[in-house]
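Tutorial handout. Part one gives the primary structure; part two gives the three-dimensional structure as tokens.
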Amino acid sequence: MKYKYLKVTKDQPLTIGEKYRPVAKVKTREEAMEYFEELVQYNMEVSDHSQEQAIDIEKQNIGYYAGYYDRETMQRIHKLFLTSHPIFGEKSPTPTEAFEKGKELGSKKVKKSKTRKSKKSKMKKSGNKK
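Part two.
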């Protein structure tokens, strides 16, 4: 595929910044849809994702990346690309709120990881393998 927006080279995959930094410059819905289509296509070309998976991934990534901009830019990106932040939605959290949410999500992953390790350990001791 020939890309209009993405600067794709054959030898080097795009960085996160190269993929998502340009979304802040998009000004119209039409431009957003064209750019989004390129992101989805690129995602499918460099992975084994289905179109549905690529769409979901790109929406979440745009929504997340938009959170690094000021509130006005973030809201414009969310509106043009029909997305929102995957954790905070349309809200712009304070640094404290973002930190606390990160701690909360991180502790859930740690608990989940410990539960998995505990189950694997019990299975090994009993001689059962999954």
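Part three, for discussion. The helical segments are 16-20, 29-46, 51-66, 71-81, 95-126. Residues 43 and 105 are 26 Å apart (CA to CA).
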